[in-house]
């Protein structure tokens, strides 16, 4: 089973390697999901590719976005856990409303719905996902700062579930802090 997972991760990395030269940013997320049925911590590393198209909203705002590929690790130390560790890979188009003026700090808000693949289908007896395939939607707020606004610090509220494909579909919610650097 571990060899199969390792092979899957290797194949995924080989598939995105040619596009890695064009990466516009890299991010690190840390977060938690505290519920009565499971306490799960998440760590993710992400790669971003900016969209070429942006839509102006007045002189100082625009709507744009980016593609994000992320690799995550869930750590579960709950007493009733079914899996103590879950690996995740995701692909998400992210829409972002952002301020474009050249000030020191530029705020933004974002929304997204993406696709995620998990290595396991449960974190506890009471938190089952039924399928490895999950939809992940999030809402986020943050600020861009630094030279060229290259740094990005934000908060995300994310929900993952299989969208009713199969029951049970308990889903899971994460509160995340995210730091991104844009090249």
Please describe what this structure looks like.
The chain is mainly β and 183 residues long. The chain is built from one helix and eleven strands. The longest helix is centred in the first third of the chain and has 15 residues, at 2-16. It has one domain (23-182): Porin (Beta Barrel), CATH 2.40.160.
Topology diagram in text:
Layout: H1 2-16, E1 25-34, E2 39-50, E3 55-56, E4 61-76, E5 85-99, E6 105-118, E7 122-124, E8 127-128, E9 133-145, E10 151-161, E11 172-182
Antiparallel strand pairs: 1-2, 1-11, 2-4, 3-4, 4-5, 5-6, 6-9, 7-8, 9-10, 10-11
Which key phrases capture this entry?
11 strands; Porin; 183 residues; 8-stranded antiparallel barrel; single chain; elongated; two-stranded antiparallel sheet; 1 helix; mainly beta
What's the short version?
With 183 residues, the protein is mainly beta. The protein is built from 1 helix and 11 strands; from the N terminus they run H-E-E-E-E-E-E-E-E-E-E-E. The protein has one helix at 2-16, and strands at residues 25-34, 39-50, 55-56, 61-76, 85-99, 105-118, 122-124, 127-128, 133-145, 151-161, 172-182.
């Amino acid at each position: 089973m571990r060899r199969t997972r390792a092979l899957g991760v290797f194949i995924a990395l080989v598939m995105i390697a040619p596009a890695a030269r064009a990466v516009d940013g890299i991010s690190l997320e840390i977060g938690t999901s505290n519920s009565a049925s499971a306490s799960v911590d998440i760590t993710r590393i992400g790669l971003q590719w900016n969209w070429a198209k942006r839509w102006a909203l007045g002189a100082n705002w625009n709507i744009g976005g980016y593609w994000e590929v992320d690799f995550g690790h869930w750590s579960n130390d709950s007493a009733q856990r079914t899996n103590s560790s879950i690996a995740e890979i995701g692909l998400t188009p992210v829409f972002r409303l952002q301020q474009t003026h050249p000030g020191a700090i530029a705020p933004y808000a974002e929304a997204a719905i993406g696709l995620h693949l998990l290595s396991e289908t449960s974190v506890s007896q009471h938190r089952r996902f039924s399928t490895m395939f999950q939809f992940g939607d999030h809402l986020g707020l943050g600020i861009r700062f630094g030279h060229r606004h290259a740094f990005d610090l934000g908060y995300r509220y994310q929900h993952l579930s299989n969208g009713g494909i199969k029951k049970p579909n308990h889903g899971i919610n994460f509160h995340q802090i995210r730091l991104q650097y844009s090249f």
